[in-house]
DNA sequence: CCTACCGATCGGTAGG
DNA sequence: CCTACCGATCGGTAGG
């Protein structure tokens, strides 16, 4: 039996790079670092990838697409705003926890993308945030959410979730579903006991 | 009149470094970069600082101390938990917005500290988070907050605030006080209309 | 604060 | 996938 190792090498490079970029940051990770972890020479990496930045691009846009697609599915269901917010948070957390190392890189290393990709990336992020903002505005119109600064609230909401990759461990006590539930509960209901 | 430029040079180096570390990251900022922005040669920097890392240490521990002292003042006032939470958030936002570039460096570049300082830094951060956790636990005991995962909630709360330096501009519409009020309101009262 | 310079390391290429 | 190597750049020091 011939094992398909060849096609996996590129993915192996990307996976190891993801882990190193998360731990040390993109700029502080050298191609020699990466190569030695994989067990080949640095020069050999370039048979599989074009450049160091290409690896970062792959990680960032893969994650961006996952987030986007996941959110679009939620939107297509056309439910009431509070349920949609709940589902959107759940979908966000699910994508995030599926590969928390890639998520961490996605959230903190994107600024090392070169101009063209940086612009594309920021456009996608902006558009993603706007979808959340729309849910909050809809909720206000539907009379289920208070009047608020929707953009501010969305940034606070996403930030509180996005920090997770820095402490989330799959073997921890909280499942992705519980995390989503906790976050949604705090943001929708607040901490105060309702009287 | 003789202007005291000599004593200001070190601060000027730290300020410029703060700005560059925020924009490009610590690892991607070279001492030559920094020197040329200041208008001297790279070698001349070392008349004022011992090493590149010393600059990072100065920024990180300066901010850590500011956060710490500010929170201790809030705690010494011995108020009820919900008011203390409100004040703690306000104090945190105030420190954060006073120098948002330094805050951004503090939050995302600390991992480049060498072992000894890294440990010290993480100990301080842990102890800071624990003070917030204690406020939530007190709030539960006092019957003003719901039963919740206090650690999780604090991490979500601090994360949502700490992301701010990436978008906060002093000339923006929201004052530090309004930001603190918005954050506290969401976390304490939630988005849902109380019925 | 500068000139001159150090050894180490960087991302990447040529050619096999 | 390797050897051999490129030019560029890194943090930092010596000596003035």
UniProtKB/TrEMBL annotation, chains A, B:
<dbReference type="InterPro" id="IPR009057">
    <property type="entry name" value="Homeodomain-like_sf"/>
</dbReference>
<feature type="DNA-binding region" description="H-T-H motif">
    <location>
        <begin position="30"/>
        <end position="49"/>
    </location>
</feature>
<protein>
    <submittedName>
        <fullName>TetR/AcrR family transcriptional regulator</fullName>
    </submittedName>
</protein>
<dbReference type="GO" id="GO:0003677">
    <property type="term" value="F:DNA binding"/>
</dbReference>
<dbReference type="InterPro" id="IPR041490">
    <property type="entry name" value="KstR2_TetR_C"/>
</dbReference>
<keyword id="KW-0238">DNA-binding</keyword>
<dbReference type="InterPro" id="IPR001647">
    <property type="entry name" value="HTH_TetR"/>
</dbReference>
<feature type="domain" description="HTH tetR-type">
    <location>
        <begin position="7"/>
        <end position="67"/>
    </location>
</feature>
<dbReference type="Pfam" id="PF17932">
    <property type="entry name" value="TetR_C_24"/>
</dbReference>
<dbReference type="InterPro" id="IPR050624">
    <property type="entry name" value="HTH-type_Tx_Regulator"/>
</dbReference>
<dbReference type="Pfam" id="PF00440">
    <property type="entry name" value="TetR_N"/>
</dbReference>
<dbReference type="InterPro" id="IPR036271">
    <property type="entry name" value="Tet_transcr_reg_TetR-rel_C_sf"/>
</dbReference>
């Amino acid at each position: 039996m011939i094992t398909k190792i060849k096609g996996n090498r590129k993915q192996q490079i990307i996976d190891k790079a993801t882990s190193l970029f998360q731990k040390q940051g993109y700029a502080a990770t050298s191609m020699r670092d990466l190569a030695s972890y994989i067990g080949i020479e640095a020069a050999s990496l370039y048979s599989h990838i074009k450049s160091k930045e290409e690896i970062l691009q792959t990680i960032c846009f893969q994650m961006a697409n996952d987030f986007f697609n996941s959110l679009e599915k939620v939107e297509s269901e056309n439910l009431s705003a509070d349920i949609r917010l709940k589902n959107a948070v759940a979908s966000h957390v699910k994508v995030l926890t599926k590969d928390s190392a890639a998520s961490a890189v996605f959230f903190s290393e994107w600024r090392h993308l070169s101009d063209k990709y940086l612009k594309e990336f920021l456009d996608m992020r902006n558009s993603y945030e706007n979808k959340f903002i729309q849910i909050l505005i809809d909720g206000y119109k539907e009379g289920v959410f208070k009047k608020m600064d929707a953009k501010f609230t969305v940034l606070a909401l996403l930030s509180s979730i996005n920090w997770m990759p820095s402490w989330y461990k799959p073997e921890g006590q909280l499942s992705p579903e519980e995390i989503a539930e906790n976050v949604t509960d705090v943001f929708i209901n607040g901490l105060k006991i309702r009287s």
